[in-house]
Amino acid sequence: MSAEALIHLRGITKTYGSGDAAFDALCGVDLNITRGEFVAVMGPSGSGKSTLMNLLGCLDSPTSGSYQFKGIPVETLNKDQRSLIRRHALGFVFQGFNLLARTSALENVELPLLYRGYSRKQRHQMAREALASVGLPDKERNTPAELSGGQQQRVAIARAIVTRPDTLFADEPTGNLDSRTTLEIMDLLRSLNTDRGISIIMVTHEDSVAAYARRIIHVLDGLIADDVGTPSATH
Amino acid sequence: MIFNALLIALREIRRNLTRSFLTVLGIVIGVAAVVTMVTLGRGATEQVKQQISKMGSNLLILRPGQSRHFQGASQFGLDDVKAVREQVRGIREVAPFVSTNVPAVYQENERATDIQGTTANYFAIANWELALGRYFTDEEVADGAPVAVIGETIRKELFGPGVDPIGCKIRLKSTAVVVIGLTVEKGQGGWGDDYDDNIITPYTMVQRRLTGRKSEHYISQMMIAGEDGYPSVNIVADINALMRERRNLTGNEEDDFNVFDSLQLAEVISSSTKVMTSLLGAVAGVSLLVGGIGIMNIMLVSVTERTREIGIRLAIGARAREVLLQFLVEAVTLSCVGGVSGILLAYGLCVWLAEIVGAPFMFDPKINLVAFVFSAAIGIIFGFMPARRAAALDPIDALRHE
Which CATH number goes with the domain that contains A171? Predict the structure, then answer.
């Protein structure tokens, strides 16, 4: 494992249910992702790509196998310890934006900072910088209802990067957006990857969106069926 | 962490002002009801005590007859007064007392009033203080001098408000009586009677010139002041024993006299007011409990409604205990805000109701503190279950929740 290794999966399985009703969502996945990659995860529904994303995002733990995130054995961590990894190293962007309603853009972006114990002044400054960096410097006071879909997703991205995470997880980030806004958001994500070196792992089902990534992983029936553009294919 | 939870909770409360207001309403009403009931109850108790002490502190009144057959019982004599003074323990003063109702006339003004005949020590027994002039003396009592100390109502009716009546002569039947003193106004008694509608004179004067009963055996009442701290029940028992002996009552014969004990009355009335207060307080307490259940109800609904929000918080790195703390702090903040609002509302209600009922407003820091602590405790107790439910949510399920 090189110093650049970000994610290191070995023999990851995930089984839901038990007995006759048991269902294997992942059946032994091996995967390496290095720092600074922009990876698209594709696959039909039920292929296990969401399960894979939840595991990679430390939202869930595997049934068996090992997952090292920056060398930390995630499979041994409990719920709260995984929360702390998410808090300090990960950012999330969702299809449905998931902003707090009736809450200003600035306060939405400040939310992760509240859990990291920054002072009020620091929170304001960091949230303003994040909003400016996603191109919304003048929408601080607006609530989600007063913003367009593209603007809401920009606020969500600002919230994800305000803590300066290593890795951004994006789950169908353009799923609710029109084609023009999709281009804007994807350009934004690409610039975060190239200019700031944030690793991005993105689930999508659109080829045009996946084309922004430098590496595309196809998941099928709980296994990685295809891995294109891997800079350091190891398995 | 607590500070952060407070900040997060306050933002959530602000974000949902209407819901927060409705949540708090139950606690506001409950706390206001408890505090108002207890405060007014204390005021009423205090009022009763004040009114009874107007009659005289530690006052006992010995009267002939029983309430059922008052007629026919023989009156007391001066020898009875002397016997009570000398033989009953725990007594400070004893004054003989006769009264009659005749019109008092001054110039063209006339007022039928209560003429009270007694001795000089009566003023101390019945807590009469002077606004003007002087009391009558023992010599004037011995002489049956035509002098009088009048009440405020008499001054108003005969002389007019604010007029100095000292030295003026008023006519009682055919006797001219000199006004020598004016008592400080006592106001209304507990039964609506006017304490200031009377004229106090030497009893000898009343007997000789008004009732014509010159015998020393026409003392209709004895006014007795007990010593401070000496149990009035003992005095009553001693008087009963003494009077039965002096009136030759034996065996099963009923008392033909009775002792009114103001201290006892005050205790009976204030203890029954206390019972009423605690009953009303308990009813109000139930409404506070219902208010607490209201908080739990709305917090539970709120957890379901805010499942996605909880999912977002968990996804961006909130730990279960931080979510728990957030919801707990929200509940406690709401219930404390409710408690404080309830106390303020109760303050307003008490001031207003005290005026209507005519009872004094007695601010009681203890009940306010108890109500506040209780409402905070309700927040913790009824906030815990919803908070635990929120904290137990799985981030993936919570995010997927519609």
Answer: 3.40.50.300
